[in-house]
Write a structure and sequence with these properties.
mainly alpha
Length: 238
């Protein structure tokens, strides 16, 4: 039971701390770009909860939204939802990271946590983003279910491939790991029928760079903080 409490406490503290820090990055980097992009789909007052979407840029982008969908009010409500969703995302991914690391003996320090964080970035942001880069509102997108299936498959294949490369004990397993990582990109991500969009290419490029950068900071901070907390809380529990 003490191990379960340690995992839960480490995930909660690391997730909340990372979520609060990265929320500030979102508010000053990706959110202004989203607000700018909203002007190309009819104005900010008709856009959906895009600040919440910015907190999940590791997932495929969304297509143009229905005008009847609910949207948060600009300002405090919108920014508050961004913070809440980012903190919840941080806790969820921290729980996954810490639990997975326990299979190999647990995190022994911030440096090991940093490596796990970089692996998380590769699995949940970098690899899926190669086929489905973060999208702004008013941009065309393929079928949502198809994109979600490809994203999940890519994340799972990348995680399995990295595990075989790092923990495999034979060259054959290493080759299989590389094949798993490459396979989703050989298959290819679902694409829309047309890539025509009112969004300027420079704006989309800035959003992709900002999203990937924020995601990198998220995973590095999450892994490093979890690795720093784990031995301290485990020692306290012991």
């Amino acid at each position: 039971m003490s191990l379960f409490r340690t995992i839960l406490f480490v995930a909660a503290l690391a997730g909340i701390g990372t979520g609060l820090a990265v929320s500030a990055l979102h508010l000053f980097t990706t959110v202004p770009l989203i607000l700018q992009a909203e002007t190309f789909e009819g104005g900010a007052e008709d856009a959906p909860a895009l600040a919440a979407a910015a907190a999940h840029e590791h997932a495929p982008g969304t297509a143009a939204h229905d005008e009847d969908e609910w949207s948060p009010a600009d300002g405090l409500e919108r920014n508050g939802l961004t913070v809440i969703f980012t903190v919840l995302t941080g806790f969820g991914f921290a729980l996954l990271l810490v639990a997975a690391s326990e299979v190999t003996g647990g995190l022994s320090g911030w440096h090991q946590g940093l490596l796990w964080g970089l692996a998380g970035f590769a699995v949940f942001s970098l690899a899926p983003g190669l086929g489905l880069p973060p999208e702004l509102p008013a941009m065309p997108a393929a079928d949502l279910a198809a994109r979600q299936l490809w994203w999940i498959g890519t994340a799972a294949a990348t995680a399995g491939g990295l595990a075989l490369l790092v923990f495999g004990r034979s060259p054959l397993l290493a080759v299989l790991g590389v094949a798993l990582i490459v396979a989703p990109h050989v298959i290819g991500a679902p694409q829309p029928d047309s890539h025509e969009s009112p969004i300027p290419e420079a704006l989309h490029h800035s959003f992709v760079v900002a999203s990937i950068t924020v995601s990198f900071v998220f995973w590095v901070l999450l892994g490093g903080l979890a690795g720093w907390l784990r031995p301290r809380l485990a020692g306290s529990a012991a």
